[in-house]
Amino acid sequence: QVRLEESEGGSVQTGGSLRLSCQASGYTANTNCMGWFRQAPGKAREGVANIYSDGSTYYLDSVKGRFTISQDSAKNIVYLQMNSLTPEDTAMYYCAASGGSVYCPSFLHLRTDEVDYWGKGTLVTVSS
Fold first, then answer.
1. Which of 25, 78, 93, 125 is the most exposed place for a label (fewest CB within 10 A)?
2. What per-residue confidence (pLDDT) applies to 45?
3. Is the CB of residue 124 less than 8 Å from the CB of residue 82?
4. Over the range 94-105, which residues count as b (16 or more CB within 10 Å of their CB) and which as e?
5. What is the pLDDT along the chain (128 residues), one digit of tens a residue?
6. Dihedral of the alpha carbons of 45, 47, 52, 55, in degrees to the nearest 10
7. Are 72 and 89 a contacting pair, CB within 8 Å?
8. SS3 91
9. SS3 56
10. How far apart are CA 35 and CA 20, in angstroms?
11. Could you give the 3-state DSSP secondary structure of residue 30?
12. What is the predicted pLDDT for the residue at 100?
């Protein structure tokens, strides 16, 4: 079992920045892929960014150059640094993790029920 707990989100103005963190606990040895998904009101969930255990990263096109995912493997923490935020980034952000035979470069395309572990979510609001 793996538990994921996100830090508090927040409310910022357009152009602002925010960093989210996800603390993983439990048996994390085989959770090779960790990342972030988000869901805006009335929209489908979408993958935002993920990171492989070797440090390889993958991003949703709309956040490339603005968001950075990183990890502290020793502490089992994954971060999402979000810069140049816009109202379109407003959403519930969910930490997620999978392991086993998952192909990490495809992690962001997984359906909700294909992801092994989920955090409860944290709200990010960006105002104009």
1. 25
2. 96
3. yes
4. bbbbbbeebebe
5. 899 999 999 999 999 999 999 999 998 888 889 999 999 999 999 999 999 988 999 999 999 999 999 999 889 999 999 999 999 999 999 999 998 778 899 999 999 999 999 999 999 999 99
6. -140
7. no
8. strand
9. coil
10. 11
11. coil
12. 74
Q: Cα(55)–Cα(115) distance, rounded to whole angstroms?
A: 19
What is the spatial distance between Cα 104 and Cα 109, in angstroms, rounded to a whole number?
10
User: Given the DSSP bridges, would you call strands 10-13 and 122-127 parallel, antiparallel or unpaired?
Assistant: parallel
DSSP strands (E only) in the chain: 2-6, 10-13, 18-26, 33-39, 46-52, 57-59, 67-72, 77-82, 91-98, 117-118, 122-127
**Can you read off the two tokens belonging to residue 44?**
């489908």
The per-residue pLDDT for 101 is 74
The Cα–Cα gap between 118 and 34 comes to 10
- What are the structure tokens assigned to 63, written together? 């956040």
| Radius of gyration for the alpha carbons in the chain, expressed in angstroms and rounded | 14
Phi, psi of 92, rounded to the nearest 5 degrees:
-80, 130
3-state secondary structure of 61: helix
